[in-house]
Design goal:
322 residues, alpha/beta, Rossmann fold, 2 domains, five-stranded parallel sheet, 15% strand, globular
Length: 322
Amino acid sequence: MPQSQDSPLGSPPNALESDAYALAANLPELLVEAHRVAQTITHGLHGRRRAGPGETFWQFRHFEQSDTAGAIDWRRSAGSDHLFVREHEWEAAHTVWIWLDVSPSMGFQSHLAQSTKADRAVVLGLAMAELLARGGERVGLFGGRPWTGRRAPRRIAEALAQQVAGSEQQSSLPPQSAISRFSECLLVSDFIEPLEAMTPRFEQLATQGVRGHLVQVLDPAEETLPYAGRTEFTASEGSERVVAGRAETLREKYQARMSAHREALAETARRLQWSFLPHHTDRPAEEALLALHARLSGFEADYRYRPAIEAQSDLKQDFAQS
C-alpha cells in the first residue's frame, strides 16, 4: 500500500496487537451493518431452499430425461406445452463453516473504497450467517462449534472477536480443519497469497467432501493501481518497501499479473467444483451477498435463474423435440 495511507484500523501497520483490538472493538458496529445488509436482500428469499426429502412443496421444475413418468405433475403440465415435476423442500439442517481473513493485509483501504477489506469481509460473513440462521441452518467459524437460531450471528461475532484479540497475527491462509462430510465452507479473503500456498488448503477441505465458496474481497486500487509519480509502497505484512519513480509505468504489467492471478484462482475453484465470487469494496455489500446467497442455495442450477439467452435456447430445443 502507499506509505501515505494510514492504517484504517487506527494504528501503524506494524502494531498488529493494536490492530487486532481495534477490529474487535469495531465488531458491534459491523454486526449492525451486517444485519442491515441481510434485511435488504431478505425479501423474496427463503433460507436455502432446495429439492430433497421432505413433505413441504417447494416448486415446479421442467421435466428432465432422468425423471420417471410417475414424477410428472399432470395437473400443472396440462396448462402448458411443457412437462413439470413437483419438487419437495429439503428439510434437513445443513452446516456452513465460515472463515474470515482479518490478517494485516485486509486492513488496507484506498481513497476509492468505502471500507477496509477486513470490515467488508466481516460484514459479508455475519450477514450470510444471519440469512443461513433464518433458514434453519447451522453456522460456525472454523475451529469452533456451529450454532443455530437468531443469536447465531452474534455468537459468531463474539467468537471472532476472541480469535482476533487472542492472536498476535492472523494468518492469511484458511486453517487446516477437520470438517464433516457434506458440509459447506465460506472463505472470505483477498486471496493475494501465492496460489502454491493456498491450493493445498483448499484441496485439504475438498478431499473431506466439503463444498467451498470463495469470496475474493479486493480494494479497487489493488486492481487498477491508480497512482502516478513517485510513490513508496509498503508491505502490509512485513517491512518491505518499494519506491517507484513513476508508478504509472507499472500499471499495465501489474494489472496483467493481478488478472492472471484471479483467473488461476477461479480455475482452481472450478477444478474443485467450488464457486468463486470477486467483490470490490467500492461496491455495495448487498451485491456480493445476493450473489453468494444464490450460490449457497444452488439457485444457479435452477432454470429460472439461467441467463435469458440460455433459457430461450433450451425452450427452442424442447419445442423442436416436441
